[in-house]
Amino acid sequence: MKETSKYEEPARLLKALAHPTRLCIVAGLMNDSCNVNKMKECLELPQSTVSQQLAILRAQGIVDGVRHGTEVFYKVADEKVKELVKVLLEDDLVVFK
Description:
Blueprint: H1 8-17, H2 20-28, E1 34-35, H3 36-43, H4 47-59, E2 63-68, E3 71-76, H5 79-89
Helix pairs in contact: 3-4
Pfam family, one: HTH_5
InterPro entries: ArsR-like_HTH (IPR011991), HTH_ArsR_DNA-bd_dom (IPR001845), Metal_resp_trans_reg (IPR051011), WH-like_DNA-bd_sf (IPR036388), WH_DNA-bd_sf (IPR036390)
GO molecular function, one term: DNA binding
């Protein structure tokens, strides 16, 4: 059997991105940082849902948050993830406005 440990990292990233909401969040953070309130408005989801999905993405090292006062602004922390999402979504990237 071939060494499968080299596939663990890519599989972990794919698993984290396999949820539509998480994929949408990452796509929305591709070019700029954003806070939870703006994301929940754009996604039309409850704040708790967005926060839960962000927690999963943070745990996997896909996004990172920077605190500015009382708000946390999130951004994509892994360049491999940016490239992967670009390939997956091509021209359908979401922008949080």
